[in-house]
Design goal:
12 helices; globular; Rhomboid-like fold; mainly alpha; 248 residues; two-stranded antiparallel sheet
Amino acid sequence: MRPASVGFQCPDCVAAGRASIRQPRRTTNARLAVARLGPVTTGLIAANVLAFLVTVATAGGQIMANYRSPIFAEFATAPILVADGEWWRMLSGAFLHYGLTHLAVNMFSLYVLGRDLEQYLGSARYAAVYFLSAIGGSVAVLLFAAPFTSVAGASGAIFGLLGATGIALYQRKANLRSLFAILAINVFISFLPGISLAAHAGGFLIGAAAGAIVIYGKRRDQAIVAGLIALGAVLIALTVLGAGLLLG
């Protein structure tokens, strides 16, 4: 495993993922870039950047103050509003970012983690891990954050990718020291003001669980689908529980 400035690369995971990909003889540079990065990771980065540009435009062009956009009021993850029936916030908040720095850090982390993990898991399973992790982070916010807080960002999903990568490395008997070092740094960052520890922890745990289902499912599609559906059902139950607790 090779540590990077944000995240890390797993040579074993890359080799295993690339071995299953048949490269076309002729292709455009754009298609080649998508093939190397992965279609899901490419799409997620594009969606996050597009959402950021829309918030900047609707905030009067303020790149570092895009949170003034009315879009945040409608789509950021806010526990009390989720409990009031605005369920879309459990996922929509994962595509919003507070300022250019927030976006850049998360998208670079997604690039570093996603390009290897998507090749290793396969695009469909990787997408399932990502979105379950994003919702898992929101569930943790709903259960443990202040009711009137407002949370946005893809970091819950990215922590989920980190958890799934840890499972992949463990399954391949790789050295986990670099993973623990990176995790320790990110845990420290999670305690800084303005950072949602709950979202990070929830995303990491759900990502690790989803990663274990996919990786240890050993290509048995029915078992993997059943496991992911069961995990999704747990998240739905916890969401209903959290909403009920907030409403009393």
